[in-house]
Amino acid sequence: MTILGQCEFELKMSQWTGTVVATILDLEADFDVVFGLSWHRQWKPLADWDTLDMFINTPEGAQRIVHKYGYVKRLMNAPILTSLEDWPVDFKCQCDLASGR
Questions:
Q1: Among 45, 67, 71, 74, which residue is least crowded by beta carbons within 10 Å?
Q2: Cα 35 from Cα 56, distance rounded (Å)
Q3: In 3D, which of 44, 48, 18 has the Cα closest to residue 33?
């Protein structure tokens, strides 16, 4: 990975528009922007974990950033569940101690 530079630009996603300071990286990936810690600390987005949408409070009110793929249900065909019986014995014992059972 090579750092090519830094830039500042205005980004619009759904209802939200804001200034982003970005580090330009030489990456081969299926995405254009990755929001790092500085962006999250600046804008303090709130996640709706059911829809994967984000909400950002602005002076104009809460702005919604709609997730590209919509509801999580569309992303997954079936839930992936791990039964407690499938966990290692040592881990199950630690869980029992933590819960007091």
A1: 74
A2: 14
A3: 18
